[in-house]
C-alpha cells in the first residue's frame, strides 16, 4: 500500500455522490493506495444527497479546494467548458496538483492548453470519465492501443440520444413525446439541448480523436449534427428499409487529416451499432493490425461515471504523469480537418413528404436523375386522409454535395410540403 | 521521448512476426519510447517468415537472450506452461529484466510464483496478450476497473471453439468435419485439443479471475469442459428452442469464493454472447457500480495478439512496476473454490436419442418426474428411417446434481441409444 492520496472533490451531483460512496467503501476494492477525501465543494451545503459528508471540510469556494495544501488530487465534477471548472483546473495544475475530471466540454475545448500546464508541472491530468461513462475507452485507446495505428474510431457516445431513437422506434411516438419521457426517467436533462444537438457526443469524439490519432484537439473543427430534426416518419421508414438510425460520433484519419463529426446515421439492423439500444454507449475502434474492437457499456449515470473517476484516481500512484493525450503536447499534430463534410461519398436515406397527386413521383424522379443519383430502394407509404404521401429512398453511393443538391431540388418541388430529410447510410 | 527500450524476442511464430513488423514500423505509432530489438531466438534460424531479422543478434538458446546484458525486456512468445518458457521467464525476472508474455498457460499455472519474483526485483511482468488477443481486457480489469467491485466476468475466450460452434449451425455439418475446415482455414491447430477441450479458455479465465477478484490464480481449481462432445443434433435442437451454444469461460465471486469454469452454455439468441460469431472473443464484466461492460474483438492471430504485446511494452516506460495481478502477491487471496459444480442452480438443456417405440416418451417423463424436474419446453424430431428420435428438453431451474441424476436415468433407459447431453442454460 503506497501513500495516502488526499482528494478534494468539487461538485456533488450524481457523479460526485457516486465517488464519495466508492471512497467510503474502498476497503472492498482492489486499490493499491488509500484514498482520503479531505474537502468537498458544491453549490448547496445542506442538500440531502444520501451520503454523509460531515467528515470532510466544506469549501464554499471550489478555488480554495483546488489550491488547498492538503489536497493532492483535485477532482473536478463541476462541468462546463468555462468558468469555475476551467479556472479551478488551471489553478490546481499550476499549483502542482493532479487533476481528475469527468468534464468533456473542458477537455475537448481546452484540453491542449491544460495538458501543457500538466506537462510543465509534471502532474497527471486524467479524464476517463469524460467519455462513455463506465466504459474504459480512454485508457484503452491512449495506452493499450498506443502500439497500433488506429484508422477510425466511432460509436454511440450519447445515451440520451440513443434512448430517444430506440424508444421512438419501439413506441412509434413522436420526438417531443419521447424526449419528455426521457426527462421523466432521468435519461435527459430539463434542457436536453446539449444531448440532442449532438454537442455532448461531439465533445467526446474530439477527445477520442485526439488520443487515437495524436492530434491536437480542436473542437471548432468538429461538424456537429444532432437528432433534433429526426421525425417518427424517419424512424419508421428507415426501419422498413432495414435500417436503424443512430447518432454516431466518428473520427476518421485519412491523408494525414482527421475528420471528426457527429451525425444521425443509418446502420443495417445487424450492424454492431444498430444492436446497441437504450441509454447504452458503444465505441468501435478500427486499427491496423488489431482489427475491430467494440467496447460497450453504460455511458452515464452515478455509478458508471464514478467508476471511471476511481480508475483514474487509482492510476495516480502507479507512476509519474504521462502525457494526457498519450503523446507530449509538442507532438500533437494540428490535423483536425475543416468541417465541410465535402467529398464524403456514401449511400443516402432521403425522406420527403409529397402531396398525393399525379406527377409527383415523376418530379421526384427527375430531381434524382438530374443530379445523376440512382435509386437503390424506394418505398411510398399511403397518404391516407392527410393527402400527403411519405416517400423514402435509399440511393446508390454519391457525394454529400450531390445528395444535398437533390434535397434542395426536392424542397422546391411544388408537391413538397415540408423540409425533406437527408441521412447518411453507413452500412 | 524517454530512453530506448531494448527487446529480446523469444519465439518467432505468428505473434513474434507480428511484433517484429510493428517494431519495424514504430515511427507511425503513438509510442513515447523508442523500441529496439537487440536479439531474437526461435527454433529455426533459416525459416522464411517474410520479415528481415538479419539486423538482430540470433540466439540459438533463448536462455542466453533472457539473460543478455543488453536486453531490458524479455518478450516470451515460446508458449507452454513448463520447460523453456518457464525457465527463461524466471531467469529474466531474476536477472532484473521486465517480461512481456503472451503465454496464458504459464501465467495461469505459475503466475503467482512469477509475480513474486517480479515484485522482489521491482520489474514488470505483463501479459495482456495472454487473454483475448487484441482485446485490452487485462489492463481494463486490472487498472481501469480497480475502483469497482467485480461480481462476475465471463465470455467467449476461445475463437477456435466459437468458429466451430458458429459454423456447425450455419453449415449443419458435424463436429469432426467443421474441425477439419477450421484447420484448413488456420483457425485450429493440427492438434486442436488445447482449444476444443476448453483448456485454452480455462487458462484465460483463471488469469481474468485472479485480476478481477484479487485472487491467487489456482488453475487446479478451474472446472474445464470443452466442446468436443457437442453434436450437430445439439446445435440444431438448441437452435430450434431459441438458443445458441457457446463455450463460455466464467468466474463468479460469491460468499468470498470464486467459482471458475469453462462449459458449453446455451444463450438466448439475443444475448450479447449469442451474437458473437466466428473466431471473435467477447468478455462481459459485471460489477458494482459500473454495471455491465462488454469488450469484443479478434481473440487471436498475428496482428491482434502482437498489438497487445506492444501495448504492454509501451507500458514499461510509463512508470515503475505495479503488481502483475493488480494487488501484491501477499494480498492475493486463496479463494478459488473447489471445482465441484455442486449447488449450481440453472435451467438445463437435455438431449437424448431414444428408440422410436411406444412408451419411450413415458419412460423419459418418468425419469424427469422421479427427480422432480419439470419441463419448460420439449421438442421431438422425427425418427425418420433411423428408428431413433432425437428429443430435446429445456427444464425449469434445478440444481446440477439433480440434472445429472436425470441424465444418468435417461442413459439407462432401454430406449436410449447413446449418451444423453446436458448443457446449462444461462439466459
Distance between the ends of chain A: 50 Å
Helix-strand topology string of chain A = EHEEHEHEHEHEHHHHEHEEEEHEHEEEHE
The overall strand count of chain A is: 17
Number of domains of chain A: 3
How would you name the CATH homologous superfamily of the largest domain in chain A?
Answer: Dihydrodipicolinate Reductase, domain 2
Structural class of chain A: alpha/beta
On the 0 to 100 scale, the average pLDDT of chain A is: 95
Helix content of chain A: 25-40%
Structural account:
The structure is a homodimer of 427-residue chains. By secondary structure, the first copy, chain A, is of the alpha/beta class. Chain A folds into three domains: 2-130, Rossmann fold, CATH 3.40.50.720; 137-298, Dihydrodipicolinate Reductase, domain 2, CATH 3.30.360; 345-425, Alpha-Beta Plaits. Chain A has 13 helices and 17 strands. In chain A, a hairpin with a 2-residue loop joins strand 11 (280-288) and strand 12 (291-298). Chain A is elongated, with a radius of gyration of 24 Å. The interface between A and B is large, with 57 and 57 residues.
Q: What is the compact description of this entry?
A:
The structure is a homodimer of 427-residue chains. Chain A has 427 residues and is of the alpha/beta class.
Chart the SSEs and their pairings.
The structure is a homodimer of 427-residue chains.
Chain A: E1 2-10, H1 14-24, E2 33-41, E3 57-58, H2 62-67, E4 73-76, H3 83-94, E5 98-101, H4 104-121, E6 125-126, H5 137-144, E7 149-156, H6 159-171, H7 175-184, H8 193-196, H9 199-213, E8 223-224, H10 232-240, E9 243-254, E10 257-268, E11 280-288, E12 291-298, H11 302-316, E13 345-355, H12 360-370, E14 375-380, E15 388-395, E16 398-399, H13 400-411, E17 421-425
Parallel strand pairs in A: 1-2, 1-4, 2-3, 4-5, 5-6, 8-10, 10-17
Antiparallel strand pairs in A: 7-9, 7-11, 9-10, 11-12, 13-15, 13-16, 13-17, 14-15
Helix pairs in contact in A: 1-11, 3-4, 4-9, 6-7
Amino acid at each position: 500500500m503506497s501513500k495516502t492520496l488526499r482528494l478534494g472533490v468539487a461538485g456533488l451531483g450524481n457523479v460526485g455522490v457516486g465517488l464519495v460512496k466508492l471512497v467510503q467503501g474502498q476497503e472492498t476494492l482492489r486499490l493499491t493506495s488509500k484514498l482520503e477525501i479531505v474537502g468537498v465543494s458544491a453549490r448547496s451545503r445542506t442538500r440531502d444527497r444520501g451520503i454523509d459528508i460531515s467528515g470532510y471540510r466544506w469549501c464554499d469556494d471550489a478555488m480554495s479546494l483546488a489550491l488547498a495544501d492538503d489536497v493532492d488530487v483535485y477532482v473536478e465534477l463541476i462541468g462546463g467548458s468555462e468558468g469555475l471548472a476551467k479556472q479551478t483546473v488551471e489553478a490546481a495544475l499550476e499549483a502542482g496538483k493532479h487533476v481528475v475530471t469527468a468534464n468533456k466540454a473542458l477537455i475537448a475545448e481546452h484540453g491542449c492548453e491544460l495538458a501543457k500546464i500538466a506537462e510543465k508541472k509534471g502532474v497527471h491530468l486524467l479524464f476517463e470519465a469524460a467519455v462513455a461513462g463506465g466504459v474504459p475507452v480512454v485508457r484503452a485507446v491512449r495506452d493499450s492501443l498506443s502500439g497500433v495505428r488506429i484508422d477510425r474510431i466511432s460509436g454511440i457516445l450519447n445515451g440520451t440520444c440513443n434512448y430517444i431513437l430506440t424508444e421512438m422506434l419501439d413506441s412509434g411516438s413522436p420526438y417531443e413525446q419521447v424526449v419528455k419521457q426521457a426527462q421523466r426517467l432521468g435519461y435527459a436533462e430539463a434542457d436536453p439541448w446539449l444531448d440532442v444537438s449532438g454537442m455532448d457526443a461531439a465533445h467526446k469524439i474530439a477527445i477520442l480523436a485526439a488520443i487515437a490519432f495524436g492530434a491536437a484537439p480542436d473542437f471548432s473543427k468538429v461538424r456537429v449534427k444532432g437528432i433534433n430534426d429526426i421525425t417518427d416518419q424517419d424512424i419508421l421508414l428507415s426501419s422498413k428499409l432495414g435500417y436503424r438510425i443512430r447518432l454516431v460520433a466518428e473520427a476518421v484519419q485519412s491523408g494525414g487529416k482527421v475528420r471528426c463529426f457527429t451525425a444521425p446515421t443509418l446502420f443495417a439492423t445487424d450492424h454492431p451499432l444498430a444492436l446497441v439500444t437504450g441509454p447504452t454507449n458503444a465505441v468501435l475502434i478500427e486499427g491496423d493490425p488489431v482489427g475491430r474492437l467494440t467496447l460497450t457499456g453504460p455511458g452515464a449515470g452515478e455509478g458508471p461515471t464514478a467508476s471511471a473517476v476511481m480508475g483514474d484516481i487509482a492510476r495516480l500512484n502507479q507512476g509519474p504523469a504521462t502525457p494526457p493525450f498519450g503523446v507530449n503536447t509538442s507532438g500533437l499534430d494540428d490535423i483536425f480537418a475543416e468541417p465541410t463534410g465535402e467529398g464524403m461519398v456514401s449511400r443516402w436515406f432521403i425522406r420527403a413528404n409529397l402531396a398525393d397527386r399525379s406527377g409527383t413521383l415523376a418530379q421526384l424522379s427527375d430531381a434524382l436523375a438530374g443530379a445523376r443519383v440512382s435509386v437503390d430502394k424506394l418505398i411510398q407509404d399511403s397518404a391516407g386522409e392527410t393527402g400527403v404521401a411519405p416517400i423514402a429512398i435509399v440511393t446508390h453511393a454519391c457525394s454529400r454535395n450531390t445528395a444535398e443538391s437533390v434535397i434542395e431540388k426536392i424542397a422546391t418541388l411544388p408537391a413538397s410540403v415540408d423540409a425533406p430529410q437527408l441521412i447518411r447510410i453507413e452500412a
